[in-house]
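Final report, Chapter 2: Outcomes

The project's central promise was a pipeline that accepts a single protein chain and returns its three-dimensional structure in a standardized token representation, suitable for archiving and comparison. That pipeline is now operational. To close this chapter, we reproduce one record exactly as it appears in the project archive, with the input sequence first and the structure output second.
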Amino acid sequence: MHDDVTAGLRTAYDRAVDQRDQHDPEPWKQAYRQAFLEHVQAEQGRTLLEIGAGTGKDSLFFQQHGLDVTCIDLSPAMIERCRQRGLQARVGDIREQGFEPASFDAVYSMNCLLHVPKRELPAVLGEIQRVLRPAGLFFLGLWGGQDSEHVWPDDRYEPKRFFSLHTDDGIRAAMAPFFEEVSFETLDAGSQGHFQGLILRRPA
């Protein structure tokens, strides 16, 4: 991502760590998380990378259910909170994660890639594909349903965050060069809008 976008996101999330740690994920997010865990377990997956781990609540869930979890996030404050939870975590950029090829059986990303500019998404997806083992699983969750890309003027975070949203057809088309689609679901989550949940597979 452009350095100014990256720096803004890092600062916004550093400032929000306590706020974001006050609440557990909504029940519908927990349902997506549980479903992905079951997919990974069914295929004897053991290692999972969470991209955009935030304060680590999802990663802790996966770790408590027997997976060997690694967290990355742009925000040093978020990563410190992950480490306080006993998680293996490091500050990282999804464009260059620094892991060996095929390091993970699964990758999980909830509401992180929506900060990636569209022109940079192929490179990010290529990097996720690289660190995922052949036939490994990737969960991607993000807000969308419309085609837009801008800093949200009404964002409550400071600095205000950049968001890149995709239509349903658009996000599925963006995934197709890199991953096979296992499932695609949309959810109307009330005032928060249209959510897209995808389970994807790196081709064997």
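Archive annotation: The first helix runs from residue 3 to 15.
This record, like all others produced under the grant, will remain available to the consortium after the project formally closes.
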